[in-house]
Amino acid sequence: MKAWEKELEVLRAGVPCYEEDDNETIWEEDAGGPEQAHDALTRMYWHSQVPGSRAHESICTASIQAIENRGYIVDKGMELIEEGMKIYEEGDIVKLHRITQDVFNAVYHARKNNEDPYWNQTFYETFRDLEAAVEYPEAVDIPIDEEYEKKTYAGWLSQIIGGAYGTCIEGYTGEAIKKRYGEVDRYIRKPNTYNDDITYEIALLFAYEMYGKNTSAKDIAREWVARVPMGWSAEDFALRNLKAGILPPLSGSFHNPFNEWIGAQMRGVVLGQIYPGDVKSAARAAFMDASISHEHNGILGEVFNAMMTAMAYYESDIRKIVKTCIDLIPADSEYGSVIRFAYEQCLMHEDYYSAWLPCEEKYKKYNWIHAYPNAAAEIVALYFGEGDFVKTLTYCGGCGQDVDCNAAQILTIIGIINGMEGIPEYWRAPFGDDLDTYVRGYKKAKISDLTKLTARVAQLLK
User: Fold this and answer.
1) Residue 299 scores a pLDDT above 70
2) Entry pTM
3) What does the alpha-carbon distance between residue 180 and residue 42 come to, in Å, rounded to a whole number?
């Protein structure tokens, strides 16, 4: 049967009907539905507050910032932003929809700035390119046994703790956090397990459970569409591409100004968990997964976190892990220069905050959700945290930026190294084994269930 035949069949089978007084439509304001949802999303593009921390974010402004960080010029970009902000304040939703389209159209047609230093770096378009530039360590065989599950459980719990800790302070500078709360070595509010970051990792595990070693970026992307209710910045744009049938890697590169932001970096650790001890395979899988929503340096962010996690299954010296994985990111990439700069500051300073301040200054033109300042914060917190759970978490919070993403990733590594014994009771007590998520079909689960799913996948990949 052809599509036209199917539609004709439906048309001919239809029977006219009506109900008296049935005049309400899904478009009426008091009926909810698509109009209100689209209006709300458009308003959010101009002004939103992060759940938990209430930090301000404007996706429209940030889209121009992000594309200009990548060596482009947006003609009349700030004129559009100023006009849009005025319209937003006036509450004219019709004009707001128009100006929002104008902004994203201007971003899409941004002009390349050939004089921008961004273009002086080497771009690693494929994992084969990356593989040729570095020498990965030999894989260490890690049995998928009870010991692996213990480490992995501690890693997942630590990720959940880091996310819960960071959600109420993300989106601010370290100075602002310190003025408001002092040194944050505690939960600011009652913690929970809800975090949008983890949704992508769970979707990935379901894809790998279905397809094993043959899993592709397209398979993972299908699970995103099926299981992830919504995204933000790079993931929002990627999901819209995916739902329109635009598949990886084009889903990450096409009209996606945020594809060097933190979204791939924030989900890297799960690849190290399913390839424990195998740094190269973790890097390859991270490169593939990142391509769904990211490009170039955004991809390298996920590769970096995946490699550190894979190493954590056999190496307990956190500074050695950090230095080894920095060396495995090419120095001629912009991301490589960022993590090397952060590491150099650690060597030059006596305490974490003194090391952090030069990083904060150097990367001030990047949004707090961009990969660069957050990669620097990860390195500073890991280096000075010296493998201690509470110190690492506290220093991560002290740097500010996208704290929940950073803390979740680096605490996973610390959790794998130290196990449950290294997680103080105060930090794990609020959760027990319960896991509440935004993932369709997996909204109520157990951390132990997630650990077993991870172990099944790791065994499939052996």
Assistant:
1) yes
2) 0.94
3) 31
8 Å CB contact between 362 and 338: no
In this structure, what token pair is assigned to residue 223?
């699970």
Q: Which pLDDT tens digit goes with each residue over 116-125?
A: 999 999 999 9
- How far apart are the C-alpha atoms of 118 and 97, rounded to whole Å? 32
Strand, coil or helix: 49: strand
Q: Which residues contact 38 (CB under 8 A, 6 or more apart)?
A: none
Q: Are 462 and 144 in contact (CB under 8 A)?
A: yes
Residue 48: beta bridge partners? 57
State the CB neighbour count (10 A cutoff) for residue 211: 15
Six token digits for residue 345: 């500051």
Half-sphere exposure of 308 (CA within 13 A, CB side): 34
Amino acid at site 348: M
pLDDT tier at 28, thresholds 50, 70, 90: low
How many angstroms separate the CA atoms of 316 and 282, rounded? Answer: 18
Question: Could you tell me which residues come within 8 angstroms of residue 446 by beta carbon, excluding any fewer than 6 positions away?
Answer: 433, 434, 435
**Residue 207, both tokens:** 């894809």
Q: How far apart are the C-alpha atoms of 285 and 458, rounded to whole Å?
A: 12
Q: Which of 234, 196, 198 is nearest to 59 (CA)?
A: 234
**Alpha carbons 426 and 295: distance in angstroms, whole number:** 39
pLDDT in tens, 174-207: 999 999 999 999 999 899 888 888 999 999 999 9
**285 within 8 A of 274, measured Cβ to Cβ:** yes
> In sequence order, what are the residues at sequence separation of 6 or more whose Cβ sits closer than 8 angstroms to the Cβ of residue 263?
231, 232, 233, 234, 235, 293, 294, 298
The phi-psi region of residue 91 (left if phi > 0; otherwise alpha if psi is between -120 and 50; otherwise beta) is left
Q: What is the DSSP letter of 121?
A: S
Phi-psi region of 184 (alpha: psi -120 to 50; beta: other; left: phi over 0): beta
- pLDDT grade for 26, boundaries at 50, 70 and 90: very low
The pLDDT tens digits for 242-288 are 999 999 999 999 999 999 999 999 999 999 999 999 999 999 999 99
**Cβ–Cβ under 8 Å, residues 103 and 74:** no
pLDDT for 19: 60
Tell me the C-alpha distance between 2 and 422, whole Å: 62
Task: Phi first, then psi: give them for residue 26, nearest 5 degrees.
Answer: -70, -10
DSSP 57: E
- Please name the residues in contact with 338: beta carbons below 8 A apart, sequence gap of 6 or more: 363, 371, 372, 375, 376
